[in-house]
User: Fold RNA polymerase subunit sigma-70 from Butyrivibrio fibrisolvens.
Amino acid sequence: MRDEEIVELFFLRDEKAINETSRKYGNYCQAIANNILGNMQDVDECIDDTYFKLWNSIPPVRPRIFKVYLAKITRNIAFNMFEKRCTRKRGGGTIMEVLDELYECIPDENSVEHMVLEKELCAIIRDYVRNLSDRDADIFTCRYFYTESIDEIAAKFGLKKNNVSVILKRLRDKLANRLMKEEYLIS
Assistant:
């Protein structure tokens, strides 16, 4: 079933929308959640929460790209679950590596000014990724949006793990430079 037809089922409040979403994108959502959570029980809960949030957000929202909208919901719920789990206990895994890698080039301020500038920062990062080569953009997105491990990315792109690490380091450095030029990061 096409994405537009699935969205239309949501607008009709037809429960078949959830089944069609699960059939078409269930494995996709599980992969996103698993990369962040690494625990199948949490992944299953995340997927259930994703479908619940999807059901409650469509309508009124009519996503332009259903797959991306679904990925963002899954990712946000998984990150929230991970954060709650980490407040109870400190853990490791890919998500901690990803957050540590980005820590140096993404400002972390809990101020009103930061909240106001957050949209602008997101736009700068989106622009940065759009201007990368297709391969570099895909590698960056795999690591920092889908939180895939270095091993997974290396296998996906036919590269050595060390090459992926070097590419990601260069991409983070370029992003940090861009953010310094935009005055979001102070050297």
User: Anything to note?
Assistant: The chain has two domains: 3-88, 95-181.
